[in-house]
Specification:
The chain is an alpha+beta fold. Among the domains are: about 120 residues, no CATH class; about 90 residues, Chitinase A, domain 3 (Roll). Helices cover about 50% and strands about 15% of the residues. It has 12 helices and 9 strands. The strands form 3 sheets. Strands 7-6-9-8 form a 4-stranded antiparallel sheet. The longest helix has about 30 residues. It is elongated, with a radius of gyration of 35 Å.
């Protein structure tokens, strides 16, 4: 069947190779998907109509040989060193022409196209399809025409649109300033990395062994009850002997890494538990466990013994510290240069927290 036209895509020729029946979904299940498909089709149809109308209105014409010139640039064999960079004359090659909105013809050149390709915005043409280059050239020209048409319609004078544009421009300026003045200028040293390690040393504690008493019960309610009764006793065994002599308290020295998956899962909790204090209840494969740490040995490994991956993570954190330091210095400098003054007393008349009916909507 075909040729079948797909607006904005081209023409297709199809050959049916086989058919396979498919049971339709109930309408209730299919409805959300169908609604989304219809919405996308209508949006695409509207986009294509707008695209075509603007192309015709501004008389966009792909120059003879224009798409072929860009196609040839894209299809230089990999590693072919005999092909030189485009000359100034080649860069001036006209790929398309259009009305600039003032009754003059403007040209879209190979230099413009290479600049658009370097920005990385939008889809790139398919190197294997010559027709995709023509469509890509038209789409890039339309991007240049869109601001002209927007001004013709005075869209930039609409407060809501003007506000969004101003916010987007401000955000891009801030991102550019942050990239050049903060990220590019920030530095971090080995001392910063070691400082990050010291600040986060609790995350690197290594538990060697722990001696403890523990009791495993069948349900969490019983475990909580035992734990509450045991906190005043010097040891878990003493507490159980006085209250439930029939229960068996076990004492064990566990080394880490532990072979018992229950203790291994509790490693971080045991690191945080001080000697002579209780912990739990914790879920283990055979029930719920309450325990008391009697003694333990844990150390913070020296920085030099850390895994290279861990050191790299600390270096990244130190880089963030350097950026925060640079940001503070930069904003402090701006405040002094611009003589910023603050008047916090003016905020006293504003109720806080803001009542819900007056809260701004974001």
């Amino acid at each position: 069947m075909g040729p079948v036209r797909a607006p904005g895509e081209g023409w297709f020729i199809l050959r049916v190779v086989a058919r396979r029946p498919r049971a339709p979904e109930p309408y209730g299940e299919a409805r959300p998907t169908l609604a989304q498909m219809l919405r996308q089709r209508k949006q695409r149809a509207l986009t294509v109509r707008s695209f075509t109308a603007m192309r015709d209105q501004y008389q966009v014409k792909v120059a003879p040989g224009g798409s072929e010139a860009l196609h040839a640039y894209f299809n230089v064999p990999t590693g072919d060193t005999t092909v030189a960079e485009p000359t100034s004359k080649e860069l001036a090659t006209t790929l398309a022409t259009y009305d600039d909105g003032k009754g003059r013809r403007a040209a879209y050149t190979l230099s413009d196209a290479l600049g658009d390709l370097q920005t990385g915005t939008g889809e790139r043409p398919n190197p294997a399809m010559l027709s995709s280059f023509r469509q890509w050239i038209e789409s890039r020209v339309l991007r240049r025409i869109a601001p002209i048409e927007a001004r013709r319609r005075h869209l930039h004078e609409e407060p809501a649109i003007a506000g969004r544009i101003e916010n987007q421009v401000n955000e891009q300026l801030l991102e550019a300033i942050y990239a050049t003045e903060i990220v590019a200028a920030a530095t971090s040293s080995d001392e910063d990395v070691r400082q990050v390690y010291q600040l986060r040393s609790a995350n690197f504690v290594r538990l060697d062994w722990v001696r403890l008493q523990y009791l495993t019960l069948p349900d969490s309610a019983s475990a909580v009850h035992v734990l509450e009764r045991s906190r005043q006793a010097p040891t878990l065994r003493d507490a159980i002997l006085h209250s439930s002599a029939g229960m068996r308290v076990q004492e064990e020295t566990v080394t880490f890494p532990a072979t018992d998956p229950g203790w291994q899962a509790l490693q971080r909790a045991l690191i945080r538990t001080s000697p002579r204090t209780y912990g739990g209840p914790a879920k283990v494969p055979n029930g719920w466990r309450v325990f008391q740490v009697l003694a333990k040995q844990q150390v913070v490994p020296p920085f030099e013994s850390l895994d290279p991956v861990v050191k790299q993570n600390l270096t990244s954190m130190a880089g963030e510290m350097g950026r925060e330091r640079r940001l503070k210095a930069y904003t402090d400098s701006l405040g002094k240069t611009l003589s910023v003054q603050t008047f916090p007393e003016h905020l006293k008349s504003i109720p806080w927290p803001v009542p819900s009916e007056r809260a701004p909507a974001f």
